[in-house]
Amino acid sequence: MRAVLDANVLFPTILREILTDLAQAGLYDALWSDRILEEWHRAAARIGPDAASVAGAEIALLRLRFPQAVQPDDGQRAIDLDFPDPADRHVVEAALAGRASLIVTANLRDFPQRMMAGLGLRALHPDAFLLDLHRTGPQAVLRALHAARDRAEAAGGAMSMAEMLKRCRLLRLARAVKG
Asked: Which of 26, 80, 127, 141 is most solvent-facing, going by the fewest CB within 10 Å?
């Protein structure tokens, strides 16, 4: 399974770590484009220069960790479609270029289900995506969750698993791993 990760799921550190750890574990192939990474960097820059600097370093590390993940977004594949937010067209173009079946995004309204189906794509919220991965690889998901929580704690952000999942807006996944 190939999935494009939108900037809004790459920017939050904990969520990105969970998603990329699961890609590294082989549960799916993570994809993105240079424009998606630039969008993440711009979002961090709006917070301030320190956040932009950290994002730049994290993006560089992500490129090293997943050199095959960057897909072109040349503006040719979905050009005739009217997107709710035309600025998100490049995400669909990256998915089409990478032959992905999914786009993982927190902004589902920008990727209407009917339009996506016509392109052979689905847009999923990270909670639904991770819940699906949990159904097929529960131990890998639990390892990724614990690793993300441990890294957050080591960086001074101690929190329970439930708090971390709530902060990441992964409420359905939280219920699944709790029970």
From this structure: 80
